[in-house]
Amino acid sequence: MNSHIEETDILIIGTGWAGLSTAITLVEQGMRVCLIESAKAPGGRAREVNYCQYTVDNGTHIMVGAYTQALALIQKVHKNKNRNENTLFKRQSLNLNYKQVNGQSIVLPEVSLPAPLNIIFSFLLAKGLSLKDKVRVLMFGIKVKLNLINLKSDQSLESFLQKQKQTPDIINNIWAPLCVAIMNTPIAQTSTEVFLQVLKDSFFKNRSASDLLFFNTSLSDAFPIPAQHYIEQHNGKIYFNKRAVSIIKDQDKNQYLVKTRFATFAAKHIVIATAPTAAINLLSDLSCNSKYNELITNLQTFTYQPICTVYLQYPELVTSERTMQGFLGTTVQWMFDKSTETQPNLISVIISSQGPHLAMDNSTLIQHISNELAQFYPHWPSPSDAFVIREKRATFTASVNINRIRPSNKTGIEHIWLAGDYTNTLYPATLEGAVRSGQQCAQHILSEF
């Protein structure tokens, strides 16, 4: 066991979107790169999974136009396959619609004007908001756009919005659902710093930044699988079913040995592109210093939020008014039409963050969700099949002062690096954050060669 040692310049542990992004940037510069992955396929938590006869995404992800680096990287790995954004995504201008049990709706319509006029007029023409509330939202948006908000210290988004004279109706019907959708964190805990960063980039940068992009293909086909092929075509190596169990410094050769159950890998540089909990375990055998102790303390401080996805298969045609439908006052937060030619009439329901649904078993939750949807769509038949995907630690909690403890790609340990959406990208746990972290990590490594 472990008699053969695979040698490389840079070893990346994990093939999530951050690890793959790191590798792509490095192999393009001619670096010898090897990736090891504990699962049997790339993609981390943003990939397709098999459930009985179904192949579905491990949760429903969407992109926005502001995710420029992730979109550019996706198009790069598809360049030689004659697939572009038009084939990979369905792009729609921002329009949000929230149904309520009382029959009323909150609607922010699509407005085809340059930014920020599109957002301004979307709120002016919004349905379900009083004129006074529309004005309050617009005044707040203007302050964000003109950088008139000076945060002396981070604070919860809920308390911040209250100080900005946003009424309970505005907070509950506009900002709270938007916050959970973007941050996967309850508004009472959410970092105002991080939320405002995303708000500026997505709503006020340019006209297309606020566009919604829905995947036309599975998450795995959109990026992880073509990224794997791209890396291998550039002489990178990827090994699956290889869980890293330890990292040991080989002082004689000034390199690191990474052990898996049946193999050992040697490299000068190690990129840990895993969740923080796994990173802590891998760092445990390395020598301690003050920076190391601070890093471990910060990583141990992270808390996490769940995401629950309920897939409902209907026996006959069901139609929703739009690809993404929001709901207020229900367990259902967002509903997506996931129908394909091979899997027609498939609906996914997203429930982000904490809530009473976590105490329900799968059959109870499925029945509860079916009953809620029946209130809005009484003409739909009962689902013929359903299943639940639960992720207890889907994202890190984007809580107040989270940016103070988010680590750099540099660990303070020579040639040991971190990549992941939890690092200091200033973004919440998103695909864009993962890609940015990976690319930043790669640039740091390249600067040392």
Question: Can you put this structure into words, describing what you see?
Answer:
It contains 15 helices and 19 strands. The strands form four sheets. Strands 1, 2, 10, 11, 12, 13 and 19 form a seven-stranded mixed β-sheet that branches. Strands 8-7-15-16-17-14-18 form a seven-stranded mixed β-sheet, sandwiched between helices. The model has no long low-confidence stretch (mean pLDDT 93). The two termini are 33 Å apart. With 449 residues, it is of the alpha/beta class. The protein has three domains: 5-47 and 218-302 and 398-447, 3-Layer(bba) Sandwich (FAD/NAD(P)-binding domain); 94-210, Orthogonal Bundle (protoporphyrinogen ix oxidase, domain 3); 304-396, Alpha-Beta Complex (Polyamine Oxidase, Chain A, domain 2).
